[in-house]
Amino acid sequence: MDEQQKAALAEDIRNALRMIIDPEIGRNIVDLGLIYDVVVEEGGVVRVTMTTTTRGCPASGYLKEAVGNCVWYVPGVEYAEVRLTYEPPWTPEMMLEPA
């Protein structure tokens, strides 16, 4: 898998993750800025780094599981790992403007 294919797969993953809606805010997790990084490695190995709006968010487990499940269904993904972090802490300024 070359760099162009890895970038295309990362973009496909971000687009798929837009289907996951934060239950408290009602917007998708990508546009909220909750997805910090999507790294595609050789062999379709994908590592997603994400956060939640607050540490201890009651939806943390749900969102992490939803991200993992969503990534697995993207064609080309052979393995998915989701890491939850709070560094840097999420702020409302991380949200994308609605299109």
Give your account of this protein's structure.
The chain has 99 residues and is α+β, with helices and mostly antiparallel strands. Helix content is 28%, strand content 19%. The chain is built from two helices and three strands, in the order αββαβ. It has helices spanning 3-17, 60-72; strands spanning 35-41, 45-50, 79-84. The chain has a three-stranded mixed beta sheet with strand order 1-2-3. The termini are far apart. The relative contact order is 0.22. The model has no long low-confidence stretch (mean pLDDT 95).
Mind sketching the topology for me?
Layout: H1 3-17, E1 35-41, E2 45-50, H2 60-72, E3 79-84
Parallel strand pairs: 2-3
Antiparallel strand pairs: 1-2
Order of helices and strands: HEEHE
Alpha-beta content class: alpha+beta
Describe the largest sheet.
Answer: 3 strands, mixed
What number is the mean pLDDT?
95
The dominant shape is globular
Q: Give the strand tally.
A: 3
Summarize the structure.
By secondary structure, the chain is of the alpha+beta class. Helix content is 28%, strand content 19%. A hairpin with a 3-residue loop joins strand 1 and strand 2.
